[in-house]
Design brief:
This protein is α+β, with helices and mostly antiparallel strands and about 80 residues long. The chain has a single domain, classed as Glutaredoxin (3-Layer(aba) Sandwich), CATH 3.40.30.10. It is about 40% helix and about 20% strand. It has a four-stranded mixed sheet, with helices on one face. The radius of gyration is 12 Å and the shape is globular.
């Protein structure tokens, strides 16, 4: 499963999300919304206004969500 995290620099919730995924050796890619206006438009079109936005397969959510990350870990 591919995991993409839409974030920006100095985001505490983004860093927390990276740390949990990294500790569990789950690969992910980061898209910096400050450098990619098209990605920003995409997550806004999805209805999100808070970061990080995590897209994992067909699932997606915003904010630091340990419950969602733990559910991913169970399915990896």
């Amino acid at each position: 499963m591919s995991i993409t995290i839409y974030s920006k620099p100095d985001c505490v919730q983004c860093s927390a999300t990276y740390q949990v995924l990294s500790r569990r050796n789950i690969p992910y890619q980061i898209i910096d919304l400050t450098e990619n206006p098209q990605a920003l438009a995409t997550i806004r079109a999805m209805g999100y206004q808070q970061i990080p936005v995590v897209v994992a397969g067909t699932q997606h959510w915003s904010g630091f969500r340990p419950d969602k990350i733990n559910a991913l870990i169970e399915n990896v």
